[in-house]
What does this fold into?
Amino acid sequence: MTAIERSDWTPPQDLGEDLAPSVHLVTFGCQMNKYDSELVLERFLARGYRVTERPEDASVVLFNTCSVREHAEERVYSHLGALKDLKRERPELVIGVVGCMAQREGARVLKRAPLVDLVVGTREFPQLPELVDEVRSTGRARVAVAEETSVDVAERPATPAGRQRHAFVAVMRGCDLNCTYCVVPKTRGRVASRPAEDLLREVRSLVEQGVREVTLLGQTVNSYGYDLPGRALKLAGLIDRLAEIDALERIHLVTSHPAYVTPDLIRVFAEQPKLSRYFPLPVQSGSDAVLKRMKRGYTSGGYRERVAALRAAAPDLELCSDWIVGFPGETDADFEQSEQLLREIGFLHSYVFKYSPRPDTAAFAVADDVPEEVKKERNQRLLHLQEESATARYARFAGGVVSARVSEQSERFPTRLMAQTRSGHQVFLEEPDAGQRAALLGAEVRVRVARFTPFGLYGERVVETAGSPA
Ligand code: 5AD
Ligand code: SF4
It folds into this structure.
């Protein structure tokens, strides 16, 4: 028997478990990005890949990135830096940067992080598995960030295992509004709404696979349909049609722009019981001078009027806002107007961001003149006010009974279930019986509210006994 010289022998690196191609995907940014990541994974799964928890176990590592603030981009580079050793050990590992930062930076990503093999923008991610194959066969890095092609996210394949109760559906992509701070029009391109018939078909198919709640996604979801020809359905009309799907129980929206709060959208909040009464309606600032420099297209008074009309139509409506603090030129008096507006409207949630200058936006040309400490302090102050606001929203239910849909079991507290009301209130209920806990997932329950915090309502389930009123 001939002995094999050690130098002739290379360890079989791709045998055993590693034979199946595997993908590890890290997602930054907004809900649209999380949704795109789902679509990307579905495409890899359909090609026989498995999904891994750790980059060490994967043959492809992808980062779906966000450009909205500089910090989000820096985090991607630090994740890439952490993969250096792995890439040295396994040069065949394919590393890809996908999404907004890839679109914005293009080949510059390769300059700064030479270990990257693939840079794929926001419009070409459906081709990712094929692009990975291409990198493998050519052995060369590939940049795919076309500006013109519009995303064609074809219908999602039916999953043999069925689907979760809830699914996201992007009804439109891109943004034409050009707020002066925002890089999204650059990274996500012009608005493109999907035809209503395609969306209806997709949601019907999701419902057949077990979905009962959908979130309609768009950078400005309520501008849906304005780019489509002639008499195409707008968002309200689309919601009416979707609500006709019997087994579909709830429709959520993320995220909107005040300019498109139309009478028809207000009507649908009044009339459509399946529409969630939780509505993200970002105001960004309470100062008219700042709103004007942001080119938001409304004043704080206009925002108040829209909220009043929405609340008159749907008294149980809860609102959520995004805020930017420290926009160029924001004075103490401007900021106090944001505080005032937050207090007055009484939002259930707020996301507060320190202004971050982004290249290729109009505001980038203007000095970023609010010092970092001031931005930090304003950020804290607004978050603190938001906590008070949420507490006040929840306090209204103390001692009462609320209806909520059970979504999941708490990871931290084994006897606790989490549920949400139609208005998006978080409800925590104690259920000591493990069998009951499992049986209640997805069920509508009534909960007597014992206490509340800024994070939600806490209580016990009201068990209807025979003969008690429904
Ligand atoms: N700096 C800080 N926050 C920003 N946002 C968008 N662009 C910027 C920026 N340049 C915030 C807005 C938006 C949310 C998604 O991110 O509040 O609604
Ligand atoms: Fe980030 Fe905005 Fe792109 Fe979403 S759309 S990933 S928030 S830059």
